Every structure is written in C-alpha cells, then in structure tokens.
C-alpha cells in the first residue's frame, strides 16, 4: 500500500450520483454513508442501543429508522455481548450487519465475541464462512466524558489477527472508509473520534466512492521531520506542523487512517527522507499501537534515522474527568517532542 497526497485519487469511484462536493462534518458523513449503504444493499442492517427512534446518543443514525423501517434499523437490549454475537450470526448467514457500541469504553462485554468469534470465523471454517460485519463506536476524549466515556482502546483490537481496524479524522475519510468496511468480507472495528464529530468539516463528493482500507494519507509534505498520527489527534498534529513551518522547519504529516492493515511503505518512505519521526496518539503510552509503528521504523529505516523515534501519547492513568487538556497530546507536547528530535 502507498500513501496519497491527492485525496480525490484515493477513492474508488463506483456508479452513483454526480454533483459538486459539499462541506459537511464528520458525523454527517457517517450518517450519509450508512443511509447510502442501506439504500444500496438490502443485506445491510443497522442496530445498537438507542440507534432507532432516538438516532443514537450522538445522533449518527437520526432519521434512518423512519426511512428504512424497524426491521433494518432497530434498537437492542443493553447487552454488548448480545449485540456482537447477533452481528456475527447475521454476517455468517449472509447479511451485512453494522452494529453500534454506544461508546468504545463499553466494548468489554462483547470482547470475547469479537476476538474469539468474529475475528476467527474465516480461519476456523477454512474459508467456508466469512464475517462481513462492522462495529462502529465513538472513541477517545476531548468531550469531558470521564474515564467511562473517553477511552481509546484501539490497541486491543490491532493485536487480534482477523480484524481490520480504522479511525478516520476527516469527513471524506469517514464516509469512504465506512462504505469500504461495509462492502468488505472481513470484520472491521470502526472507531469514530467523538471530539471531531462536529469539529471536523470538509468537502465530500456527491458521487458514490470508497476509501481503501490500509492506505495512509499525506496531509502535508516535508523534509525535516515526519509527524504520524490518526483519529482525534490529527488537528493538533497539523497545528504543530504549522508552528514548525513558521520557524522554518519542514514537517511531513501522515494520517494513518487505517491501523490494521497500516501503510508501512508510506511511513518508512517518509522517515527515510526526513530522518526523524514523532508518533502521536491519545491512547495510553504502554502497549500503544504506535509502539509497533516505531518498531517497524527502526527495523526498516534504522540507517536513515538521525534521532530516536519520539512518541507523544496519553498517560498510563484512567482518563481524567476535568484534566483532558493535560492528558491529550496537544500541540505543545507534540512540539516539545519535535524539538527533542531536531536537536538530538
């Protein structure tokens, strides 16, 4: 896989409507993707806690039950194990279930169904069954939700063979990646950075398109240092790059978008060019997925490195209620890591 600089070239166009791009926010992009896939494929069903008449706690599914009916968009009991288990059974029997877990923090009760059933069905059946399901869930902090509504648990799922894991940061990617996930043949954990739901705005084409899972996006070209992030941290990563640019430092910014699979070629190629890398995520530092990225950089680009690989992450503590600005990797912490790399 390779990264792309022109987002229009990353999409895979499919027959659909034409028209000028519109500016929408990330949650509107999610809603559009769900509506279009429900319209396109009768096998798609959408369910979870309060996703029906209410439209979900963040209103991502607002209006979909009224439009597509209670048989295709419906509420479930407050049981994540049941939600995931039902999704696995539906997928094995030919449907395309999209299950919402109300917060990523609540995925624990369904963990065994995800890692022992969904992730392994293709392998344990010798390819006789696939498990084409999507689990959507709001993830991360920044909305003062405290330690039960703000966690970033993506690293648990990147460790599980058989799962795909994605986390967009723009409306364009949110829509294109979700549509690609629904149309794929494997289970996808689709994390939605909740602090970007209405903060992230951008142009989204009116025509039908998908974004390939496993391909990073180069948000900014540079030659002195590579900044790598995904999901909710990306606005701060780009702010840090702008501040570096004002001081004459050319920072390349890579948005992974997809964690499994992830775009090793884009990352390694960039670090071989710049010689320095700073990795940014909001999950706790220990066991962080970015540790895998750092390992691959030193394995494949060691001779190009001019400084140790830096990492800016959340702290190894429960997510705090009121100190999220301290906990989250803001521009100042990112800049400090960049200065250390530049001065090494």
Automatic annotation (TrEMBL):
Residues 10-21 have a biased composition (Low complexity). GO terms for molecular function: oxidoreductase activity. Its EC number is 1.2.4.-. Pfam families: Transket_pyr (PF02779), Transketolase_C (PF02780). This is Alpha-ketoacid dehydrogenase subunit beta. PANTHER family: PYRUVATE DEHYDROGENASE E1 COMPONENT BETA SUBUNIT, PYRUVATE DEHYDROGENASE E1 COMPONENT SUBUNIT BETA. CDD domains: TPP_PYR_E1-PDHc-beta_like. Its cofactor is thiamine diphosphate. Residues 1-21 are annotated as: Disordered. Residues 24-199 form the Transketolase-like pyrimidine-binding domain. The keyword Oxidoreductase applies. Keywords: Oxidoreductase, Thiamine pyrophosphate. InterPro entries: THDP-binding, Transketo_C/PFOR_II, Transketolase-like_Pyr-bd, Transketolase_C.
């Amino acid at each position: 896989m390779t990264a792309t600089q022109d987002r229009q070239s990353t999409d895979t166009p499919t027959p659909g409507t034409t028209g000028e791009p519109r500016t929408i926010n990330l949650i509107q992009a999610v809603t559009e993707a769900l509506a279009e896939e429900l319209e396109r494929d009768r096998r798609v069903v959408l369910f979870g806690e309060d996703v029906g008449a209410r439209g979900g706690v963040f209103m991502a599914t607002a209006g979909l039950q009224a439009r597509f009916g209670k048989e295709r968009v419906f509420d479930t009991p407050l049981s994540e194990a049941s939600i995931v288990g039902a999704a696995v059974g539906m997928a094995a029997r030919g449907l395309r279930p999209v299950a919402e877990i109300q917060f990523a923090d609540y995925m624990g009760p369904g963990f065994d169904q995800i890692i022992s059933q969904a992730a392994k069905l293709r392998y344990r059946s010798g390819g006789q069954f696939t498990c084409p399901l999507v689990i959507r869930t709001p993830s991360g902090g920044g909305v003062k939700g405290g330690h039960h509504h703000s966690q970033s648990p993506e690293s648990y799922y990147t460790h599980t063979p058989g799962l795909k894991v994605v986390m967009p940061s723009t409306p364009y990617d949110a829509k294109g990646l979700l549509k690609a996930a629904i149309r794929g043949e494997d289970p996808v954990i689709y994390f939605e950075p909740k602090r970007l739901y209405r903060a992230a705005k951008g142009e989204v084409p009116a025509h039908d398109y998908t974004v390939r899972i496993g391909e990073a996006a180069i948000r900014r070209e540079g030659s002195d240092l590579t900044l790598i992030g995904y999901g909710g941290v990306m606005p701060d990563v780009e702010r840090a790059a702008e501040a570096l640019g004002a001081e004459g430092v050319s920072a390349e910014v890579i948005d992974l978008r997809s964690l499994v699979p992830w775009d090793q070629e884009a990352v390694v190629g960039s670090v071989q060019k710049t010689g320095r890398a700073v990795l940014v995520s909001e999950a706790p530092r220990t066991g962080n997925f970015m540790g895998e990225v750092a390992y691959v950089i030193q394995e494949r680009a060691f001779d190009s490195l001019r400084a140790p690989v830096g990492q800016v992450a959340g702290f190894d503590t429960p997510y705090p209620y009121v100190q999220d600005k301290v906990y989250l990797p803001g521009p100042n912490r990112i800049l400090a890591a960049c200065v250390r790399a530049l001065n090494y």
